[in-house]
């Protein structure tokens, strides 16, 4: 076990955090996971993710007490809120992390229109507490989740990390852009190496029920029509979960350093005079929403009934990631096809919810 490289991973009852923790644990790293297991979507799914990693529900329901995994010797889990300043401070002091992978957040563009304070509490206050933990208990590298939503009203494709991102169209996007600004400030003031990752529409097994592909699958199987926004004219750079995890794993040891050629008269938003970097993680291959739905239909053997709707407030019509910086640094290019990724998701869905038949 690589106990000298202890990693804090936030959001390990969540979709990406669950997969990230399992990957690092399988490679022998020591992992401390945290999550508040909130009710934004079915908590049972979150408990079941934890159970897959050897954390039983009865133990995980207790707040602030470390729970030892029965599957991985190097995994302990804490249930706590990131916005609890004292608890996060004590966690950093007690554990003395080498690395931090900060994935926990309040997700969802549309929900941010209904409950904006949840985003300020979790995404702003919670991230501040992580930054403060890294300040007072220095780490080698803080890697944190940003989002493709920061590109907002931008229309030049593909989206580049060197583009200006000052026009968000949802509060969720604004909080993710704020996280990047906060990280830069701490990199500058306290010399904390930080890397922000702009994820592009992540999907796959153990995914979030509020995501479109999950909703489509459930509705099709129940014989209900699916809501297709922007009359199906949406395009998304769908990125399979394994490609996200592989990218993070490769970026973690690549600790950013100040850029000696950074120029304040022509500032490059993706790097800085301090140890700060931004990367896109996407498939670099936008897919029409109709083609995505067709992949689900093919996998289920059922044709969906479509309810076409207007573009929703906060949504953008298209995303497309320029990932050249990621490739140049790590040699890795996310490239799992939608057909492969949806196939893996549907196989998991059958196992988790029971045999769904052939339609």
Account of the protein in words:
- It is globular, with a radius of gyration of 20 Å.
- It has twelve helices and 14 strands.
- The mean pLDDT is 95.
- The protein has 359 residues and is of the alpha/beta class.
- The strands form four sheets. Strands 3-4-2-1-5-6-7-12 form an eight-stranded mixed β-sheet, sandwiched between helices. Strands 8-11 form a two-stranded parallel ribbon.
- α4 packs parallel to α6.
- α7 links the parallel β6 and β7.
Query: Radius of gyration, rounded?
Result: 20 Å
The arrangement of helices and strands along the chain is EHEHHEEHEHHEHEEHEEEHEEHEHH
Compute the number of strand runs.
Answer: 14
- Uncertain spans: none
Count of alpha and pi helical runs: 12
* Straight-line N-to-C gap: 46 Å
What summary fits the major beta sheet? 8 strands, mixed
Shape: globular
The helix content is 25-40%
Q: What is the subunit arrangement here?
A: single chain
The overall average pLDDT, rounded, is 95
The strand line-up of the biggest sheet is 3-4-2-1-5-6-7-12
Proportion in β-strands? 15-25%
Structural class: alpha/beta
List the helices and strands and how they pair.
Blueprint: E1 2-10, H1 15-26, E2 29-35, H2 43-52, H3 57-60, E3 67-68, E4 75-79, H4 85-95, E5 99-102, H5 111-114, H6 116-136, E6 141-147, H7 171-190, E7 194-199, E8 202-203, H8 212-221, E9 226-228, E10 235-236, E11 239-240, H9 241-251, E12 276-281, E13 287-288, H10 289-300, E14 306-308, H11 324-330, H12 338-353
Parallel strand pairs: 1-2, 1-5, 2-4, 5-6, 6-7, 7-12, 8-11, 9-14
Antiparallel strand pairs: 3-4, 10-13
């Amino acid at each position: 076990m690589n106990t000298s490289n202890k990693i804090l991973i936030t959001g390990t009852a969540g979709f990406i955090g669950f997969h990230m923790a399992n990957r690092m644990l399988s490679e022998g790293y020591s992992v401390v996971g945290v999550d508040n297991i909130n009710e934004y979507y079915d908590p049972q799914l979150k408990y079941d993710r934890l159970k897959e990693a050897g954390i039983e529900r009865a133990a995980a329901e207790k707040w602030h007490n470390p729970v030892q995994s029965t599957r991985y010797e190097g995994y302990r889990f804490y249930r706590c809120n990131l916005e609890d300043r004292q608890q996060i401070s004590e966690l950093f002091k007690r554990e003395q992390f080498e690395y931090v992978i900060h994935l926990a957040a309040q997700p969802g563009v549309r929900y941010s229109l209904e409950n904006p304070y949840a985003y300020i509490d979790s995404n702003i206050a919670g991230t501040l507490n992580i930054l403060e933990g890294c300040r007072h208990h220095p780490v080698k590298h803080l890697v944190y989740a940003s989002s493709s939503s920061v590109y907002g009203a931008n229309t030049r494709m593909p989206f580049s990390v060197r583009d200006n991102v000052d026009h968000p169209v949802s509060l969720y996007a604004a909080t993710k852009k704020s996280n990047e600004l906060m990280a830069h400030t701490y990199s500058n003031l306290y010399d904390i190496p930080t890397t922000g990752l702009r994820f592009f529409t992540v999907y796959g097994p153990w995914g979030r029920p509020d995501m479109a592909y999950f909703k489509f699958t459930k509705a099709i199987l129940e014989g209900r029509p699916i809501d297709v926004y922007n009359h199906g004219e949406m395009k998304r750079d769908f990125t399979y979960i394994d490609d996200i995890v592989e990218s993070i794993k490769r970026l973690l040891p690549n600790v950013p350093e100040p850029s000696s050629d950074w120029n304040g008269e022509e500032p490059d938003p993706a790097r800085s005079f301090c140890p700060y970097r931004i990367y896109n993680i996407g498939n670099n291959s936008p897919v029409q929403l109709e083609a995505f739905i067709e992949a689900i239909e093919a996998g289920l053997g059922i044709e969906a009934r479509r309810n076409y709707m207007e573009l929703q407030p906060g949504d953008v019509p298209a995303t497309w990631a320029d990932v050249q910086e990621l490739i140049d640094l790590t040699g890795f290019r996310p490239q799992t096809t939608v057909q492969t990724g949806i196939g893996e998701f549907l196989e998991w869905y059958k196992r988790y919810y029971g045999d769904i038949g052939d339609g």
